[in-house]
Write a structure and sequence with these properties.
five-stranded mixed β-sheet; eight-stranded parallel β-sheet; 44% helix; TIM Barrel; alpha/beta; 13 helices
Length: 358
């Protein structure tokens, strides 16, 4: 049995990206530019694409932003989702301006008639929706019924919306059901996944800044992916969107779900044996090798004990010592280098190794 048995879900397409079925779990992010600023938004889309982002979401705040979607779509290397809140007319206009998908939270759109108006145009253009339910957009009747936000309220809201959409013959959508609470998010996704077979967009909403956001998102997303739940992910951070993409791919790579198209770094924790500044060495090695986009494994070790042990499976390894260091390839020592030459020598060794593999 494989480590992860993914749940089969209905497959939809956002642009040319398949979501659901057994398609690779796609990575999304969202621009933080003003969508109406075409140059800035396109530059960020291209930056996200260079990091591996496969789908991008853009905020739509007015009619001008809707029209910007049409222009961006012509130049974007990846599908664009129009992110809509409150105004159903903006969702319709975004569809008419060639968005690849529309994200709505039905709970803040208003009446079901308004949602049906969006659905009608989406069907005409064969455009999918992302139906979002989260702790900030729950209907008042459910908040009153359950006394506030909870797993059952989130799930009931999502399930009710799915039933409404099915009743009018619409099934071209993916579903998200998010909370800022890790436990609540996991339990809600587990429950809705057991009830429905629509593709799921998973993540933790409002996860926070760098440190806490990464840890909370990794806990929630990692648990769900291990259970086979999730077809596309966004790591929501109060940080640069590019970092969201980097973290998402690290999670997928760690679970064996996607192979990194860049270096996988291994580094040992510091201890009393270390006689070099391992933290600074690790930082410099990563910076100097950031241009390499090959799926190789590089280990950065503080002493020979770890370099010849834990790092044996790495393609290349560097190990520090007192006034010297070792460069190791495929578990064998290839060079002993003075400490002041260690970084340059190792970077050169990695670059030569990659060139030979090309």
């Amino acid at each position: 049995m494989s480590f992860i048995e993914r749940k089969k879900t209905k497959k939809i397409y956002v642009g040319n990206v398949g979501i659901g079925g057994f398609e690779p779990i796609s990575v999304q992010s969202m621009t933080n530019t003003d969508t109406r600023n075409l140059d800035a938004t396109l530059a960020q889309i291209n930056s996200l694409y260079a990091r591996g982002c496969e789908i991008v979401r853009c905020a739509v705040v007015d009619e001008q932003a809707c029209k910007a979607i049409s222009i961006l779509k012509q130049k974007s290397p990846i599908p664009i989702i129009a992110d809509i809140h409150f105004d159903y007319k903006l969702a319709i206009l975004s569809i008419e301006n060639n968005a690849d998908c529309i994200r709505i939270n039905p709970g803040n759109i208003g009446s079901f008639d308004k949602v049906k108006s969006i659905i009608k145009v989406a069907q005409q253009h064969n455009i999918p929706l992302r139906i979002g339910v989260n702790s900030g957009s729950l209907e008042k009747n459910l908040l009153a019924k359950y006394g506030g936000v909870c797993v059952d309220a989130l799930v009931e809201s999502a399930y009710n919306w799915v039933m409404r959409l099915e009743d009018i013959g619409f099934r071209n959508f993916k579903l998200s059901i998010k909370s800022s609470n890790v436990k609540e998010t996991i339990l809600a996704y587990e429950k809705i996944s057991s009830m429905l077979e629509y593709p799921l967009h998973i993540g933790l909403t409002e996860a926070g800044g760098d440190f806490e956001g990464i840890i909370k998102s990794t806990c929630a997303i990692g648990v769900l992916l291990r259970e086979g739940i999730g077809d596309t992910i966004r790591v929501s951070l109060t940080d640069a969107p590019e970092k969201e993409v980097d973290v998402a791919f690290e999670i997928l790579n760690a679970l064996g779900l996607r192979k990194k198209q860049s270096i996988e770094f291994i580094s040992c924790p510091t201890c009393g044996r270390i006689e070099i500044d391992l933290i600074e060495l690790t930082k410099q090695v990563k910076e100097r090798l950031s241009h390499i986009k090959k799926p190789i494994k590089v280990a950065i070790m503080g002493c020979v004990v770890n370099a010849l042990g834990e790092a044996r499976e790495a393609d290349l390894a560097i190990a520090g010592g007192r006034h010297f260091g070792l460069i190791i390839e495929k578990g064998k020592i290839v060079k002993k280098v003075r400490e002041d030459e260690l970084l340059d020598s190792f970077v050169k060794q990695v670059e030569e190794y990659v060139e030979k593999q090309s």
